[in-house]
Amino acid sequence: MQRRSHIQLLVDALRLSRFNNLVIIFITQYAGAIFLLNSDQPVWFVAGDFRFFVLVLSTVIIAAAGYYINDYYDIKIDLINKPDRVIVGNTIKRRPVMIAHTTLNAIGILLGAVVSIWIGAINLVCAFLLWWYSNQLKRLPFIGNFVVALLTGSTLLVLLVYYQSLDLLTMVFALFAFGITLIREIIKDIEDMEGDANYDGLTLPVVFGLRKTKIILFCIIAPFFSSLVVFLLQVRNQYLLYYFGVLTIPFIYFLYKLVLADTKKHFSYLSSYCKWLIIAGILSMAILKF
To answer: What are residue 92's DSSP bridge partners?
Structure first.
């Protein structure tokens, strides 16, 4: 029985850290290094780079700490929005969660500093922003969404610091990750509108309502898509253009579903759909290796 409780505790700790998202971060950074910044090198060149592994590990740890503190502050809201998925205060007490958050941040920052003082500084800023987001920014209209999107894009931009490069391709993929994440975060706010409204969360849908928030989303999507096209044309990689051309089809479907969406279930589907769009974008990096 005790062994079973320990296993359940481990499972809940992994769920709390959004393990699936951590895997995506891990793959994204390795894909960026292998297919974008070292496309002319054999795969083992990156795979055998221990310092790079430490960088990726530090990023994943900082992200896990961010998920821990996010759920720590969101207990009351989550009891309304997703009561069956609440872990903090239920199977894991609040104090251990805060201790784990602090410990993980310290480890992530130190590991980053081992790679370079600049990586350590970036990890420190990211850790602070994740705490500030969970503590305050996520309850403000748009600002919290923007910060999360910026942090998502930074998982690729930090590679430019490590390799001391200004690679345009990496910036294109960082822009893609930033844009899709920004859209997804606003959709998640619509999905969580009821809980946020009950606890003074001044998110876009709470402040402006569903209809105006959808208009804001389309106002964000238009320049994002246009900027992405401009950058892709600058890169001049025909295979990448073809891939993103094909990816336009599911994106148009996403826009169609967004126009029709008006229930929590609809927006939950769109939130998951955005995650698959991000994964599809990551997979496109492999095209550049061949």
So the answer is: 88
In this structure, the chain runs to a length of 290
Distance separating alpha carbons of residues 53 and 37, to the nearest angstrom: 15
Provide the pLDDT confidence category of residue 1 given band limits of 50, 70 and 90. very low
pLDDT of residue 47: 87
SS3 141: coil
Look at residue 228 in the predicted model and tell me its pLDDT. Answer: 86
Distance CA 181, CA 171 (A): 15
- Residue 199 per-residue DSSP state: T
Measured N-to-C along each axis, helices 143-163 and 50-73 cross at an angle, to the nearest 10 degrees, of 170
Backbone angles phi, psi at 78, to 5 degrees: -65, -30
Model confidence band, residue 6 (pLDDT cutoffs 50, 70, 90): low
**CA separation for the pair 286, 10 (Å, rounded):** 34
Mean pLDDT across the stretch 7-16? 80
The Cα-based distances of 98 to 72, 120, 155, 169, 216 in angstroms read: 7, 21, 24, 38, 35
Residue 34 has what DSSP assignment? I
